[in-house]
Glutamyl aminopeptidase (Caerostris extrusa), 444 residues
Amino acid sequence: MATWTGQIGFPLIELKRDGDKLTAKQRWFVRDLSDTVSALLSQKVEYNPFGFKWQIPLVYKNFRTGEEHTLWLKNESSTYLINATNDDVLHFNPGFVGFYVVKYDSHDWARLGKRLINDHLTFSVGDRYSLLHDAFLLAETDRLIYDIPFELTKYLKSEKEPMPWNLFRDQFLYFMSHLDPHSETAKLLKLYVANLTSALYDEHVVPVAERSKSLFKKWKSNIVSCSYTVPDLDFISIITDLACRTSNPKCLKSLQEELHQWIGGERITADLPLVFKVAIPQYAGRSLWEFLYSQLSGNANDVNRRKVMAEGLTSFRSSLYIEKSINILANDPGIDAKLAKFMFEKLVNNPAAMPQLWNYTKHNWNNMMEKLNSTDNYSLWISSFCEKFKTKEQYDDMVLFLDQVPRVSEYIARGCIQDIQDSLSWSNKYEETINTWLVWNVSQ
């Protein structure tokens, strides 16, 4: 017990198996440190008298026999003879009760993935969650290639429990926050998620959608991958959210109907910003833009209604209406600084609008800062673009821009450039692998 209570962190268990011969090796797992660095630190006695080695009861289940067995790993590495054949599917840490991460060899990952596809219910819900969790966590920390966790997700077409879907939703949002939204990889990833959720949406969401209260609500979007806590969205909410984010036709149709009802003056129970975000890019045109603008202009004393209309105006995907919305943001005297800031933030977060807003802003910087009442503090507006820039062209553009704009602190400029460099580094490290897997596995 002292090895668990007397040192921080937890171990990573690396497994290699050849039939009945199993080798297990433990390492100190540190999310933000490589195995090489953590190994060097673990050798320093002043950091830890146990050398970051644990006495670990390795519990595993053999699906062929249905039996569970326990092996004790007390040293850095041990080899065992076990009752198993090459074709047996072994799952370690059943019940997700052991405080360690498991890394199988490539053959056992493949066997587990195949078993999930053929009969995922032979794993408990917690076990399905833990397999996805460990695989994505290992890939994120450069201990596994992303092909392996993506292969495991194929079974999700049959998954009807929220825990595994919650984890995959978090991972999807994490990827989308790092990818250029206009890239082939982002488009393929959305298509893959759409394929996973399509039949589940038809089976579980469409019949429920006839309830008096709309299913279309605002869901929390934490951009965190492989967290150590389990979020609490229910299954139908997760499938609805992912389907709508990936342009499921039936979701789009439902939200279009909600939009028409709202325009007609009917009370709707759906989250209106969600309706705008999903339906307006797909269906809206000149008549809706003019309706929203007239409502914004005609309700000068109704702050809340003006904000609703402004949100609609910043949700368009057409370059024509994005340009019109940017123009009123910058030049309409009826839009005060507070509403202008709200519209600016919404346009930055609209993938279709952000490039146009950047192009306008950099060429009209002083006027835009005056409109936003921010002539003495540029940091927020510069940073908002840096968080969204994902390409080398955008990086070069920002470097040139920062050289030309006065009164930008060195701290803000350095942080901005670092944000974009981090995005480029992530893309250079992972995107090709993810893209290649998606190209081979997505039906277009």
